[in-house]
Specification:
13 helices; alpha+beta
Length: about 650
Amino acid sequence: MKQYFNISGDGIVWDVKNEDFGHKDNFEFSGKGLDCIVDYGVDENGVLTLARYCAFPTLRMSPNNTHGTLAIDYDNAKLPKILINDIPVVEYGKKVSINGILAIESVTECGVQLKRTFIPDAKEMIMYEVIDITNSSENEIKLSVTECGRYGISRGVTGIYVHEVTHDAKDTTLAKGDSITFCIYYSAYKNALKYDYFGEDYYNTPDKALYDWKKALKDRIERVNELSNEAALDTGNAVLDTMYRFAKIRAGESIFNTKGGMFHSPGGRTYYAATWCNDQVEYAGPWFAFTDDVTAVKASVNAYEHYTPFMTEEYIHIPTSVIAEGTDIWEGAGDRGDAAMYLYGGSLFALTHGNKFMMERMWPALRWCAEYCERKTLPEGVIWSHSDELEGRFPTDNRANLSTSCLAYGGYKYMAMIAEYLDKHDYAKKYVDKAESLKTAIVNYFGAELHGYKTFRYSKGFDTLRAWICLPMCMGITDRLEDTLDAMFSEYLWNENGMLSCEIGPENKSATVWDRASLYGFKGAFMNGRFGNVWTQFFKYCNSRLLGERVPYAIEAWPEGARRHLSAESALFCRIIPEGILAIRPEAAREFSFIPRIPEGLDKVVLSNFRMCGDKVTITVTKDGYEVVGFANSIKGTTLGERVSFKTNREL
């Protein structure tokens, strides 16, 4: 891996060197009204390259499907141009800084310095490109910026959408050492004929008073700080702490305010104003309960509740995703085990949040999903589904796969705890029994010897190693643990990009990596106390994703998807710390446990201001012992490596 970035303060910086010429990357960031991606880099001569993309999730296009978001790849030829002495500037890239905000510095041949700062508006459909120009040359310069205005229009499902690119620059002269700041605004809005019964007809246009980049910058910094302060990590290791903090930002920012409520959505140029049973329900929801971020928790509840209209007494499978601001669905892959995803993610969300009202509110939907899984139980005791979250990209037998059964098993365990707390004791016993039966069935049905490893096959009839062999250990099934870990990090599944979704062989010809499996794998290894070589690989992964060729977040897939920075993968990364390194798990609705330990190479592990089982908690582990501080009680100890329980007594 070639490293381009270095850590600087709370962020990362790329100081462009000659040997870096030709490198390009992009950065994604979101507000509640839009998602933005800025492509940046330098060409083979060091000339700065930039491209801008904005998606507006509530401006729906026809067909109004998963991809029906107004999205604009801005053409540089049509954008405002900066002129120095009437000549368009040619910029040479000097520095790129990322810290929840993207800042790019460059210099012209005549020595004029530029700094571009890209900011998403917190609420409105506006991206700001703030440009600072300093005349560091020896001569006075004349500065001007060309106009763009109405960039284009699109015919959408609710009218004509106008996209504008405007700026507030004025023609000026800069003496040596003088500076100026102006802003380019990228916006979109619905343009329609309006009329006032007592006045004149008019076309609605945006309120230009909203175009306030200084306020937008302040709001963005506040939001980044909010996301940084919840469930904060301090290990003293700059790479791990920064990667974790950045992952919290990416996971928490991709939330859009739509007519269907707050939707946490993956992003990545493709997925907006919608929710998925894997990304939002299974991956992100439990993490957001852990952070207790108000906006993210609302988005999670909204995601869970958008599936309840499909939960009927006929027990037809719920859809894969609810799309287009909640007005449509997508279920093109059939039943992917979505009820099992919901059962696991929803029950863990409810337990982690720890609010009794929340558990009661979610109980009917969770019970429906549990019943659905029971009805899909095969004679062998495992759970049937058409496919999994990879939607048939890799072969299954269209009957049962390891993923669906493992998720159902985890869900049954958590449902038993919720039922006990809600005084539904018959259900509690039922789900305990269901979990035990399913655990036995998973080991018996999927257990196999592959390449000499006594591990799990993914589905019957396909004797190739798959990344999801890590799922049993993630759910607390420790049978075949050692061989499974060896298989995960063997030549068959592990390469420099992460864990292969499927080993290369007759059934699979490509070395495809989906980070979600690698992240589950790291978490599963750590929660079972296996560090060593796994920890080494984890740090290589962190260095690569944070500082290497594609930064600074976990990716969706490679080569598929061009390594998009989908937001829920970052939520999965965050979960490695509490659920993996500290092995935090609920034991009951008002009790959780963890294992105080410090992996080799760290001096401490401090996880502060997180929510678990209804309490706000801070865990501090040093080489001398541990301390857990909650709202009304605390505990201390000196023994590391043994599981510790902590009872809470507060509902927040």
